[in-house]
Specification:
Radius of gyration: 22 Å
Helix content: over 70%
Number of domains: 2
Structural class: mainly alpha
CATH superfamily of the largest domain: MFS general substrate transporter like domains
CATH class of the largest domain: Mainly Alpha
CATH topology of the largest domain: Growth Hormone, Chain: A
Length: 429
């Protein structure tokens, strides 16, 4: 094979690859809810069905071994990008139809499944292609471009949809334009990566490994995981830590979009795009960075309770918003910034605990299973949040969210963490 295909600068593919990893996740997890709200669906239906879109990430560990043995990581990457691009176009095509919800949801689920598979292949390809020193030096680049995808997807594109809504007074047409544009962008990424991704020699099929062997190792991996010390407490922590935040994430944007007569703030789509694509992402990222710095300075155990408070108490900003309905967009932005900063800061402890609990001989497999339970911890509260909100109203729902912080505190009180964990890890890196 041409040596140029084997050796390419990481700058030529790492940024675009991790932009492509983040973009469909944002489309499914953030943009779909805004789209369905603008199309007139109830909060109950939006939360229930968008909650189901977490399922591919919940069960991702179940098929990740087969991505390792069937074809190459490069093959999976380009195939999933082609499917995602086609599915985004299909969402756009379905919007003007009378069965738009059923069709669009089916295609969103296809995007979610393909995106979860794409995640497996991307991370494996990254590790197979780059030597350890380059993996470390490009970790910040890949995370940055993943965040850029968030800003672009739930920020710039949603603002474009809002602009189109105002210009055309046609909500379905405006969102069709957004998804057609998203499809064009993603198909462009598909063609780019089809021609530009390198062909690392380590990225090859494992023909000498049978399906029977994979299944046996797969079962053993789960058996070993569930034999880990303090497994029940760990699973409770992983599922319960974000119980309140998951509900808030499901309803927060819908509250912002709903009319004042329905108890919402009455923001338009452009404002939502700026609020969650620029303000929220910036402060979420800032909180995450400072959270990592804090753990590196004193260790996870020292910061566990402060970070648990950081991910819960700022939810009070939504209680304030639902009581006083400020008409100042600046005040609303400050409240969202405070909540997202707290989420980013507190989430650092959660991710560090996942790393801590995954330690051992089978660290990668343990971490993959833990992230599946992490997705389950988001899926279940999201699915119930819409029904709870419509029963209680926005103000009482946000008060309920504060009571939902109790499982977080119980989980933090139960887990055990080595005093210096995190401090050693981050400083050694």
């Amino acid at each position: 094979m041409d040596n140029n295909k084997l050796k390419k600068s990481p700058w030529s593919w790492v940024p675009s690859l991790y932009f492509a990893e983040g973009f469909p996740y944002v489309a499914v997890m953030m943009v779909a809810g805004i789209f369905y709200k603008r199309m007139g669906l109830s909060n109950t239906d939006i939360a229930l069905y968008t909650g189901w879109l977490n399922l591919p990430w919940v069960v991702k560990p179940l098929w990740s071994p087969f991505v390792d043995i069937i074809k190459t990581k490069r093959w999976w990457i380009v195939l999933m990008q082609l499917i995602i691009g086609a599915a985004l176009a299909a969402v756009a095509f379905s919007i003007p139809t009378s069965y738009y919800f059923q069709l669009s949801f089916a295609f969103f689920f296809l995007i979610a499944f393909s995106s979860a598979t794409h995640d497996i292949a991307c991370d494996g390809f990254y590790m197979l292609t780059l030597p350890p020193h380059q993996q470390a030096s490009f970790i910040g680049i890949r995370n940055t471009f993943y965040r850029i995808a968030m800003i672009f997807g739930q920020g710039a594109l949603v603002m474009l949809a809002g602009f189109m809504e105002k210009k055309t007074a046609d909500i379905p047409f405006s969102w069709s334009v957004l998804f057609y544009l998203s499809a064009a962008i993603f198909l462009g990424l598909f063609f780019f990566h089809y021609y530009k991704l390198p062909y690392p020699t380590a990225d090859s099929r494992s023909d000498d490994i049978s399906i029977k062997h994979i299944l046996r190792e797969f079962v053993q991996t789960f058996i070993r995981y569930f034999k880990k010390e303090q497994i029940l407490v760990a699973l409770f922590f992983i599922i319960a830590y974000r119980f309140a935040e998951a509900q808030l994430s499901a309803i927060g944007k819908l509250f912002m979009l709903d009319d004042l007569q329905k108890g919402g703030l009455g923001l338009d789509t452009e404002q939502i795009g700026f609020l969650y694509g620029a303000v929220a992402v910036a402060f979420l990222l800032l909180g995450g960075i400072l959270g990592g710095v804090a753990i590196a300075s004193r260790g996870l155990k020292f910061w566990l309770w402060p970070m648990a408070l950081a991910i819960t108490l700022p939810n009070l900003t939504y209680v304030y918003l639902s009581y006083y309905y400020p008409d100042s967009f600046f005040v609303i932005s400050v409240c969202v910034a405070i909540e997202q900063f707290g989420y980013g800061f507190g989430f650092a402890a959660f991710m560090m605990y996942l790393m801590y609990f995954s330690e051992g001989k089978y660290k990668t497999a343990n971490y993959a299973i833990s992230t599946g339970f992490m997705a389950l911890g988001m899926m279940l509260p999201t699915m119930m949040a819409g029904k709870v909100q419509e029963l209680l109203g926005y103000t009482n729902f946000f008060i309920w969210v504060m009571f939902s912080c109790i499982p977080t505190f119980v989980a933090v009180a139960l887990i055990k963490v080595d005093a210096d964990y995190g401090k050693k890890l981050l400083n050694n890196n």
